[in-house]
Amino acid sequence: MLPAFYQTEFTEAGCDEAGRGCYAGPVFAAAVILPRDFRHPLLNDSKQLKAEQRNELRLVIEASAIAWAVASVDNDEIDRINILKASYKAMHLSLDQLQVQPELLLIDGNRFSAYKKIPHHCIVKGDGKFASIAAASILAKTHRDEYMQGLHISFPHYSWDKNKGYGTKAHRDAIEIHGLCRYHRKSFNIQAMQLDLYDDGNES
């Protein structure tokens, strides 16, 4: 099982994002503070787990965590500020929502934009090394997948129920046929023969 904590002196929150490399949809991030005695044999990097395992762990994490929060930054803002800054912003927004303020942040990856005056450690592949980061990766991933499943209802031809906005062959082929819709990230320079925006007539 993954070690629960980086250290034991300060209250720490694990942070991770999901959807950074997608062609469409928001980037999601989560922050999680786990209790000292939290253990679960399945807990690992969300990418190493099956969807059923992630969904099972989501329920356990949300019920057991001292505090947790999920936030997102939409594709329009991603296009305005770039995906890296949007990922940081989503993490900051999730930290804003925590009911308990952490004293140390564990960030998955090698870079981060400092949050308030709280010290942080960037840990490459941290979602496979520490339980709190793994928990954050699972919440970010499952909440984002759920969101993309909802978008799929209005835009079924992109197969977002399966690819969740990632650039799979089916998604790329659909873009060639249907062009880009309002949820695609235009700043990603997605190549399409037809670039007219697809509108389902339900703008809100």
From TrEMBL:
What does the record give as EC number?
Answer: 3.1.26.4
Q: Show the GO MF annotations.
A: manganese ion binding; RNA binding; RNA-DNA hybrid ribonuclease activity
Keywords, A to Z, come to: Cytoplasm, Endonuclease, Hydrolase, Manganese, Metal-binding, Nuclease
Transmembrane region(s): none
Database matches in InterPro entries = RNase_HII, RNase_HII/HIII, RNase_HII/HIII_dom, RNaseH-like_sf, RNaseH_sf
Matching CDD domains: RNase_HII_bacteria_HII_like
Task: Kindly state what the record says about how the cofactor is bound.
Answer: Manganese or magnesium. Binds 1 divalent metal ion per monomer in the absence of substrate. May bind a second metal ion after substrate binding.
Q: Which Pfam families match?
A: RNase_HII (PF01351)
The subcellular localization recorded is: Cytoplasm
Domain (RNase H type-2) spans 10-199
Q: Where do the annotations place a divalent metal cation binding?
A: 16-17, 108
HAMAP family, from UniProt?
RNase_HII_B
Functionally, this protein is described as follows:
Endonuclease that specifically degrades the RNA of RNA-DNA hybrids.
Which protein family is it in?
Answer: Belongs to the RNase HII family.
Name the record gives this protein: Ribonuclease HII
* The species this protein was found in: Sediminibacterium ginsengisoli
